[in-house]
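User: Last request for today: this protein with iron/sulfur cluster, please.
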Amino acid sequence: MQTELAAFIRDTPQGREADAILRKCVHCGFCTATCPTYQLLGDELDGPRGRIYLIKQALEGAPVTAKTRLHLDRCLTCRACESTCPSGVQYGRLADIGRELVEQRVPRGAWQRGVRAALAFALPRRVLFGALLRLGRMFRFLFPGLVPAPAAPAGAWPAPRHARRMLVLAGCVQPALAPRINAAAARVLDRCGISLIEAPGAGCCGALRFHLNLHEQGRDDMRALIDAWWPAVARGEIEAIVMTASGCGSTVKEYGHLLAHDPAYRDKAARISALTRDLSEVIPAQAIPGRAGLGRIACHSPCSLQHGQQLRGGVEALLARAGFELTPVPDAHLCCGSAGTYSILQPALSRELRTRKLAALQSGMPVGIVTANIGCLTHLQGGTSTPVCHWVELLDEALQG
Ligand code: SF4
Ligand code: SF4
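Assistant: Here's the final one, the structure of the complex with iron/sulfur cluster:
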């Protein structure tokens, strides 16, 4: 695609990156067919090719309007378009650049600003979010379907006894919503000869605020997390950093890129990204005793796992080896509608995508649904009575017999 970026951005790092991405796009439109919002709305501007064009216009200095912002807001950043694109267009990175610009050019109204500020303030603060969730659960009867049910107890966390050690991200909302996930991961890895450790002071990975277009605040969260992890990394005590939420994993694997222009952090960020693994990448399949007959399960692979990290089939292979029968899931590449804060900011589109995803997941008559991201888990469970859990919880139960 020919580009003529405006002088205000042409020679900035963002301008150069956006220009290189735009020039790769050949406007073929293959990506449009796999875009969930295009499937729902049927508008070219609610698909990747149209959004790329809108961002190009904005970067070339054309006026941007609330309509431009709306089409970008409706994008889930699921990156299904990246998996489909034959030219390797990094749509997600281009969207980050375009959204930041449009956010500056078209200020939001007071209500939208208030909601987004409240989300950016409360969600990354683990203690505050936990307190709000407990309060919400006390009055759950007033908001049926809105507040997640009380979580299953975490169970015992094995004492660190192995020479092989890995850090695990506790995260911001996951400890309150599903404390069992990390404890189950620690138990499973303990059986594989690996001790899992949570670093004190490690908080949000930064994805929440970054994807609310608060890029510098998001980067502050990233720097704080690097500071919390760095002592263990610098001492060479750990061989990997494990992610039990694929949304966080997708972001932390990009720290090297996201902090590339911060001279104080770029080297550390690149090292952290290189050490980061999804949980499914570190559990050796041969450590799982092969069995059969544990029940029919549908697996929802989050976009952040299959598109963001380009990891496919690993979770399913571990569960199959442990004895679960994986039911077929049509259109598995499509987003469930959770997408960070999207379910709150775009509730109608989000609910429609969830309805479609649950129909696909339940079409094979599973007894339960598993996924790999706390956002998808909570969102899907809000729409069905079929139990939804993290896959490692199921693996933990299977290994405990
Ligand atoms: S598939 Fe890739 S090259 Fe084709 S229009 Fe979409 S982003 Fe551009
Ligand atoms: S990231 Fe997802 S929703 Fe956004 S344009 Fe790409 S496929 Fe469509």
